[in-house]
Amino acid sequence: MADTITGNRDTADLAIDPIPAFTDNYIWALHRGGHAVVVDPGDAAPVEAFLAARDLVLDAIVLTHHHGDHVGGVAALAATRPGLPVYGPGIEAIPGVNHALHDGERFTLSVAPDTPVRVLAVPGHTRGHLAYRIEDAIFCGDTLFAAGCGRLFEGTAAQMHASLQRLSALPAATRVFCAHEYTLANLRFALAVEPGNAVIRERIADAEARRARGQPTLPSTIGLERASNPFLRVREGAVIASAVEHARETQRGENFAPSAPSNDEAVFALLREWKNRFR
Ligand code: ZN
Ligand code: FE
What we know:
By secondary structure, the chain is of the alpha/beta class. It is built from 9 helices and 15 strands. The protein has a 7-stranded mixed β-sheet. Strands 8-9-10-11-14-15 form a 6-stranded mixed β-sheet. A hairpin with a 2-residue loop joins strand 3 and strand 4. Helix 8 (237-250) crosses helix 9 (264-277). The longest helix is centred in the last third of the chain and has 15 residues, at 198-212. The radius of gyration is 19 Å and the shape is globular. The structure holds zinc ion (ZN) and fe (iii) ion (FE). Residues 67, 69-70, 142, 179-180 line the site of fe (iii) ion.
């Protein structure tokens, strides 16, 4: 079932649907009145099938970052649609991008011509990763996940922490459309970090029920992420204590005597390291 943008008349009937791709990617389709825009089409085939089934014309592509599971379908989709606008990060060399974007810029899409899409630079997963905000929706690729965050492939922990704080500062009702179905695995890690957090336990039950019905766990909301995503909760005493304790256990015997992490980025870095090895 489609989500819709909550906003003015321009976007009141703009639908947002997930197009599943590969094993756990979601390509988000924004559509209205026979026209569509897709975010991060890693594969063209499921997008073409979605468009054909609903008789939609593809008007534009929006890309968050250069990884193949997000851009792999661009060439095939654009090949049959001369002049198709392809929006993407200005500082990443992505073949096919013809509208290079940077932090703070705005643009509009055919499916919501009176509503600006705001561009946010959120580096960390990749150097030039962008997020796109339209009304009460944020498309954040592999930066913020439901109950988790992306790996640090090109950026530093400090960069990713700053990017996540930027997203966390959006209004609580902002809906989070991320690019992967990683929610249950992320929640299991979140519970290991904060066993006493009741919101995480409720969320696990909800996510398990949705997955059992074959439904996505997305979108999330910024408010829910603030309450249950350990990577946004680096100032919580329980999170700090847990991160330090884990670091102490794993580095025992290496003359490691952790004191309290010196700042929020340090807590974030400990959590990210822990999650990298968590099974
Ligand atoms: Zn990625
Ligand atoms: Fe990805």
